[in-house]
Design a protein that fits this description.
mainly alpha, 11 helices, 0% strand
Amino acid sequence: MTQDSFEHENTAPGRRATSATQGYDYTGIMPGRATLEVMGLAPASKQDGGVVQPETYLTAAGELLALMFAVVWLVSLIFNPGVVHDNPIAANLGYNNFCVGLDTQPAKSPGLILFVACYYVGIRYVITNMQRSFERRRNGKNTRMQFVGSVTTDLFWAISFTVFSLVWVINPWMSLRGHTAPFCFFIICRWATIFARMLESPATTWRGWAWMCVYGPISFILPIYYFSSFSYHDATGGIMIPYWVGMILDYTWFACLPLTGLFLHVDKDDIAAMVHIAGAAEADRLENQTSLLDEGDIPRCGPPHIVAGCAYYALLLAALVTIIWAGHVSI
């Protein structure tokens, strides 16, 4: 898509006019549409330049997360209803938060499978948003601070999403603090990523900042509330604050997750950047699609490659023999 056709597409009749302060609205997407779009089962919106914007991945992550919690709670209520009444989280906080549904089998198994899908779209948001930040910086649309803030928070978001997977390994019966810490790290890093994106985009509206005034404080209060409640319960055996106060904080944070996509907007600069990135990627694929048939481009394997390959497989074989031997000795 050329720049002229891009401008024409976005000023077509019936399309809402945009400017540096009035970005493309992302509220028109139907529930489930974002997931279908990132999985390639639905075409990208023309309003987004015909390419998948990073915000689509973020919205899809919220949709898949909601699906994951719905599934694990349904499985837990059917096959392990006792966990609702007897678990360390309820004992310390006075109520069940969303995580209780995924803490025990058999809900853990389907929950972990669905989490892989959430992880994929979450990491794709990081990658595409970083690509767009680099492109905006090259085009002079980002200040140095905006660029550094966006890329740094995106990296921490990816790290926190990876660390969050530890909640499937460390259950609250094993270590309540060890189970909660990865979740709290995820909460802070997610807030930082969203905040950096809203600062980067000139299309952010006052409604978005109003939502951030709710989402931001809760993101910092929850980790403090969790660990303070655990310490109070260890010392006294009681609940630190009325259960309904903590429940409001907890459930409000989870309610903010699917609402995030409603307040992240893209403008012409965002769309132009992603159109250019998508076009460059497509050109690269076309240029290299016959590389495997071009003998001149096929790398030749010399002695160093052969030695390295043999060493690698020798190491794998030694590890396999060691495991078999150790298992035989223990038996």
